[in-house]
Specification:
The structure holds two protein chains of two kinds. By secondary structure, chain A is mostly beta strands. Chain A has strands at 4-7, 10-13, 19-25, 32-38, 44-51, 57-58, 67-73, 76-81, 90-97, 111-113, 117-121. Chain A is built from no helices and eleven strands. By secondary structure, chain B is mainly β. Helix content of chain B is 0%, strand content 53%. Chain B has strands at residues 5-7, 10-14, 19-24, 32-37, 43-49, 55-58, 61-65, 71-76, 85-92, 99-101, 105-110. In chain B, the strands form two sheets. In chain B, strands 2, 4, 5, 9, 10 and 11 form a six-stranded mixed sheet that branches. In chain B, strand 7 and strand 8 form a beta hairpin. Chain B starts with a strand and ends with a strand. The chains are: A mainly beta, B mainly beta. The A-B interface holds A 32, 34, 41-46, 49, 93, 95, 101-106, 109-116 and B 30-31, 33, 41-45, 48, 50, 88, 92, 95-104, 106.
Chain lengths: 122, 111
């Protein structure tokens, strides 16, 4: 159980185009999903928190108009990189937490990560 | 915001040698989590520690949470080539909502 899928696994696009990445929780509901970006040999940087049925919460320095997030259902969040540029090339990973999670001392704090999407912008 | 410093950045070991990675915080942590990311893969949750002085074991892996809850360590006994990857510590932000990751320690194991 607790599987998160991500699609596509890799994508190559031309500069100026938009790319949509899907993140799905396959066997549990996730009111909250998280989007991370990871550059080679670096840590995961949280970009935004995706909230089902409401606006995403973006981390400082992340352009909300460039990285559009939609969380229309309890099992699907999408990240759209608009007008992509070569500096947007990175590994994008989503994660989800079982909706039963309820705080720092809950036994359900575990995050389940998708396999990631490697984006290359030419 | 809450941050954790993780050292070393990377370590090369001979198969069979032990390995330890450390996480430190200037503030008291309510919890700490550990993840492993294999090369080309995604992070996989290993464990969460919440109690002062807590020690947990998973086979050859030993996780510790400091008495002051400001530091934590992951120790691997007798490394194997399958242990290769990056080990991240992570903390839940206030309220237990967001997860903030340390820089990670890359482990290389030579057979």
């Amino acid at each position: 159980g607790a599987v998160v899928s991500q699609h596509p696994s890799w994508v190559i696009c031309k500069s100026g185009t938009s790319v949509k990445i899907e993140c799905r929780s396959l066997d549990f509901q996730a009111t909250t999903m998280f989007w991370y970006r990871q550059f080679p040999k670096q840590s995961l940087m949280l970009m935004a928190t995706s909230n089902e049925g409401s606006k995403a919460t973006y981390e400082q320095g992340v352009e909300k108009d460039k990285f559009l997030i939609n969380h229309a259902s309890l099992t699907l969040s999408t990240l759209t990189v608009t007008s992509a540029h070569p500096e947007d090339s990175s590994f994008y990973i989503c994660s989800a937490r079982d909706s039963r999670s309820s705080g720092a001392f809950s036994s359900y704090n575990e995050q389940f990560f998708g396999p990631g999407t490697r984006l290359t912008v030419l | 915001g809450q941050q954790v410093m993780q050292i070393p950045q990377y370590q090369h070991v001979q198969e069979g040698e032990d390995f330890t990675t450390y996480c430190n915080s200037s503030t008291t942590l309510s919890n700490i989590q550990w993840y492993k990311q294999r090369p080309g893969g995604h992070p996989v949750f290993l464990i969460q520690l919440v109690k002062s002085g807590e020690v947990k074991k998973q086979k050859r892996l030993t996780f510790q949470f400091g008495e002051a809850k400001k530091n934590s360590s992951l120790h691997i006994t007798a490394t194997q080539t399958t242990d290769v990857g990056t080990y991240f510590c992570a903390v839940l932000s206030a309220g237990g909502f967001k997860t903030i990751f340390g820089a990670g320690t890359r482990l290389f194991v030579k057979a």
